[in-house]
Amino acid sequence: MKTFKRIFIGLLVAALILLVLLLAGTFNVLMTAKKQAERVEQIKAQQPADLKFIDFAADYQCKTTRLSDYVGRGQYVLVDFWASWCGPCRQEIPNLIAAYNKYKDKGLVVLGVAVSDDPADTEQAISQLGINYPQMINAGTAPCELYGITGIPHIILFAPDGSIVARGLRGEAIEQALQKIFNTKH
User: Fold this and answer.
1) In this model, does residue 49 exceed pLDDT 80?
2) How do residues 64-108 score in pLDDT, each as one tens digit?
3) What is residue 50's three-state secondary structure?
């Protein structure tokens, strides 16, 4: 009987420890989600024209690339936050290639930012999809956290001064936004 009590008490203690650990983990996840939701609301509360770009860097193959290498330098910049494993991201690439090819001579810069992706997979996708515009590879999750991005693809159009013109562009909305800026017909 004493052995049974010891086993029972041991199991009960182990279950309590497991419960405490699970609750602590859930609390951390909820706090992280709460912080991210607060950041998203903070960004949404600002009007796009009020929000200048937030710089970040990606290190890849002993080279550091910054968003500020492209944004805020006197040209419109269409930035695609994407990943090779993301089906909708891959579906959006032809629209971005078309925009780049159509407007690059008019001053548009298109930039891909590979987030939460393995660099080798990113490079393979760039090759497979025929992406012909610059990429920031190995950006990690920081860009999504900085811009309150909760899902990809997420495409942001920046003005020449670095302010946000539009965000969440997809499909035909990309072409419509660029037509307004570059005053062209479809």
Assistant:
1) no
2) 999 999 999 999 999 999 999 999 999 999 999 999 999 999 999
3) helix
Q: Which two tokens stand for residue 106?
A: 């008019």
Quick count: other Cβ atoms within 10 Å of Cβ 175? 17
- How far CA 175 is from CA of 95, 112, 142, 167, 178, in Å, comes to 8, 17, 28, 13, 5
Give the strand pairing for 77-82 and 63-66. unpaired
The rounded distance, in Å, linking the Cα atoms of 100 and 29 is 39
Q: How far is C-alpha 150 from the geometric centre of its chain's CA atoms?
A: 8
What are φ and ψ of residue 114, in 5° steps?
-80, 115
H or E element, residue 39? helix 2-45
Q: Which residues on neighbouring strands pair with residue 136, listed in sequence order? A: 113
